[in-house]
Specification:
This protein has four helices and two strands, in the order αααββα. By secondary structure, it is mainly α. The chain is extended.
Length: 91
């Protein structure tokens, strides 16, 4: 019985116990957020809590969080056609 409770807790906490629609909506929100701001929803949450500019994918290039300044804030707008999207330089 104890193993069953532990297994159920592990599955629920890992996100596997969520209905598929929640996973799909979360993934769609992350994709839209990344295409428009180059940061995921999680990155925005971490940035808001720490009051810094944080992006988890930045770990490949340097520090995850940097101090925000007016010059560093850049808003990326998604292109209106797929050819322009394919030509975008991704960091």
């Amino acid at each position: 019985m104890r193993w069953l409770v532990l297994a159920a807790a592990a599955i629920s906490l890992s996100g596997c116990g969520l209905p598929p629609i929640v996973t799909y909506v979360s993934t769609a929100a992350d994709i839209l957020s990344y295409l428009t701001t180059r940061k995921t929803v999680t990155d925005h949450g971490i940035s808001m809590v720490l009051q810094k500019d944080c992006a988890l994918l930045r770990v490949l290039d340097g520090p995850i969080c940097i101090e925000e300044t007016e010059e560093e804030i850049v808003v990326h707008r998604p292109p209106k056609n797929l050819e322009a999207l394919a030509a975008l330089p991704f960091p």
